[in-house]
Structures
1.
Amino acid sequence: MNHLPVECPRCAFEEISLLATSPVPGVWDVVQCGRCLYTWRTIEPARRTRRDAYPDSFKLTA
């Protein structure tokens, strides 16, 4: 994909690492947070990939 997410949806940390890419170029990436190690594919729904849509009961704080 063209770009990594800017923050972790779970803990809002801004260090995101690319772990894997789709065998079909540009379809999805697997990324991981550098603090809480939350891992997700970029094609998951917003409730798994965006901080503002992530369920409050599962969010982590520093």
2.
Amino acid sequence: MTVTTAQQTIAFLVASEGIEEVELTEPWKMMERAGHVPVLISPDAGTVQLFNHLEASNTRPVDVVVSEASVDDYGALVLPGGVANPDALRTDEQAVAFVRDFVASGKPVAAICHAPWTLIEADCVRGRRVTSWPSLQTDLRNAGAEWVDEQVVLDGNLITSRKPDDLPAFNEQLVQALGG
């Protein structure tokens, strides 16, 4: 698939571990195929540990620490899931502020699986229609969101999906949001 859009730098925000590998690597590859430049952002410098469900897999180098990241430098934000990843991110003040500022910017923010936990902590789901891994539906409803069980949901600049099986629709929606 060839997409002709203006090249943009895309932020991928993750914690230092617990990232569901496919939820990082598949959107990353799609952004590269679409002509964009993905950048890995994390609270700490060094490398991050990816997982295939509960088993450690590969590592990836961090490009930018979140304390030095500016929303102005990126065309979109991708929040991969995994259980431990968004749980750790939502306890990091600078990561939460980056997410909050990104949502407020109006630029696309794409979150899959458990990643909406970080959106909840940033108070960005109130009055929004979203989806996630099913175990988050009560958390999302308690935070003021309308939770639905759909493959991909677009509400304003928020793009959400439930699980790795939804990645093709998730990726396509993100490319469209970037003008593809």
